[in-house]
């Protein structure tokens, strides 16, 4: 029928057909593209909104899916599910980079494959879906990212520990504080079955501890413990990040 817009390949991959295509166009417009054309509108305001929508949808999804989990573990799991790394991976899976509107300089510097840029633009897309069709539509699209993360054969504990060091570094940078420090406090057991112990320090305070069969594993567990500690016991004088202070942000 004349007048009906065809669904784009990206919309099919995303799982949402926009009623208002200009919202998707805006969500795909990087600041560099807008600047080169003398325009003010780009995706950063939508990214702000999408961040909050993603946080709320993920929090509710976890709350309903895991009625047995305490608040601390829910917070840790949520932080991993909405981490920049997870967002960038899903953005790559739906080939978001292929449809971004970038400036010449950003294009030449490999912007279509930059994890940070992909993560930011995916949040903007989620914000655009919310404005286009409401929370239920946004939740449907976001669930397409969340469900495979817990159904890919990884145990919950593995997901909680995965790349916790990167997530903790993101949190500490957002706070404007020092970077985390990992102190190896000892090891027990025979050489073929050692158990290493590590403490995680931030801003001069021990905030997490972990044990593992390797130093790397112990550090990851200490970082995961530190993230849970920060959610429940903020460091005095250091402002919380949005992910720690609001259930509507990641």
Put the structure in a nutshell.
The chain is mainly alpha-helical and 250 residues long. The chain has helices at residues 9-14, 21-27, 31-36, 44-65, 71-81, 84-93, 104-108, 115-133, 135-151, 156-161, 164-175, 215-232, 242-245, and strands at 181-188, 195-202, 205-212. It has two domains: 9-155, Orthogonal Bundle (Ribonuclease iii, N-terminal Endonuclease Domain, Chain A), CATH 1.10.1520; 163-245, Double Stranded RNA Binding Domain.
Note the topology.
Elements: H1 9-14, H2 21-27, H3 31-36, H4 44-65, H5 71-81, H6 84-93, H7 104-108, H8 115-133, H9 135-151, H10 156-161, H11 164-175, E1 181-188, E2 195-202, E3 205-212, H12 215-232, H13 242-245
Antiparallel strand pairs: 1-2, 2-3
Total separate domains: 2
* Distance N to C terminus: 42 Å
Strand content: 5-15%
Report the sheet with the most strands, covering strand number, pairing sense and barrel closure. 3 strands, antiparallel
Please identify, by name, the CATH architecture of the largest domain: Orthogonal Bundle
Count, helices: 13
What is the strand arrangement across the widest sheet? 1-2-3
Total beta strands: 3
Overall body shape: elongated
Q: Residue-averaged pLDDT, rounded? A: 85
Helicity level:
55-70%
Element-by-element helix/strand order: HHHHHHHHHHHEEEHH
Which CATH class of the largest domain applies here?
Answer: Mainly Alpha
SS-derived structural category: mainly alpha
Low-confidence stretches: 238-250
Compute the gyration radius: what is it? Answer: 20 Å
CATH fold-level name of the largest domain: Ribonuclease iii, N-terminal Endonuclease Domain, Chain A
CATH level 4 superfamily of the largest domain: Ribonuclease III domain
């Amino acid at each position: 029928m004349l007048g009906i817009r065809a669904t784009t390949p990206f919309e099919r991959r995303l799982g949402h057909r926009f009623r208002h295509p200009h919202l998707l166009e805006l969500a795909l417009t990087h600041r560099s593209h807008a600047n080169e054309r003398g325009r003010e509108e780009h995706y950063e305001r939508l990214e702000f909104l999408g961040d909050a929508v993603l946080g709320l949808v993920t929090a509710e999804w976890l709350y309903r899916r895991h009625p047995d989990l305490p608040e601390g573990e829910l917070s840790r799991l949520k932080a991993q599910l909405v981490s920049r790394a997870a967002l960038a991976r899903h953005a790559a899976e739906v080939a978001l980079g292929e449809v971004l509107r970038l400036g010449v300089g950003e294009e030449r510097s490999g912007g279509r494959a930059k994890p940070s840029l992909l993560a930011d633009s995916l949040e903007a897309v989620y914000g655009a879906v919310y404005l286009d069709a409401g929370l239920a539509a946004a939740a449907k699209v976001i669930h397409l990212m969340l469900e495979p993360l817990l159904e890919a054969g990884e145990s919950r504990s593995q997901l909680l520990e995965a790349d916790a060091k990167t997530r903790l570094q993101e949190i500490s940078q957002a706070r404007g504080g020092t970077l985390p420090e990992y102190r190896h406090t000892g090891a027990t057991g025979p050489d073929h079955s050692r158990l290493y112990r590590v403490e995680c320090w931030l801003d001069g305070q021990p905030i997490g501890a972990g044990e593992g069969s390797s130093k790397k594993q112990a550090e990851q567990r200490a970082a995961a413990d530190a993230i849970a500690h920060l959610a429940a016991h903020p460091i005095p004088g250091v402002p919380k990040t949005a992910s720690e202070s609001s259930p509507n942000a990641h």
